[in-house]
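Students often ask why we bother encoding 3D structure as a string. The short answer is that it lets us treat folding as translation between two languages. Here is a chain of 140 residues written in the first language.
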Amino acid sequence: MRKEFYWPVRVYYEDTDAGGVVYYANYLKFMERARSELLRHLGFEQDRLQQEQGILFAVHSASIRYKKPARFNDELNVVTSIPALGKASLTFLQKVYNSDQVLLVQADITIACLNAEKFIPQAIPAVILDTLQQEYDCGS
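And here it is in the second language, the structure alphabet:
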């Protein structure tokens, strides 16, 4: 079974739209934070990766499905797994649940590893690939 990373999110008033529900683009922000925290949890700080390894990660594509709305002050949980890992990219499956474990949003987000100076694809460093493979049982 594939390991998952959990990141809690509280919905603030600023996250909602005029209808009182989470504005659709803010789910992408919640997911971005969860991906950043997953890397941090594994010991990979993105600013240090840029400075020391000369790489950065950028969203290549996203497919998102909205199922139910979240509202102000809801406690959410962003659940992240990594179903596919390539030489220079990885795909995250991210799901956002409310406190009742109801699925609100689901997304497949492909991230590209880029050379930080040239903004061209670059192989993900072996230490990161190995760690992700070990910790998250990633497909390749």
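Translate back mentally: Residues 5-136 form a domain with the Thiol Ester Dehydrase; Chain A fold (CATH 3.10.129.10). Keep this in mind for the problem set.
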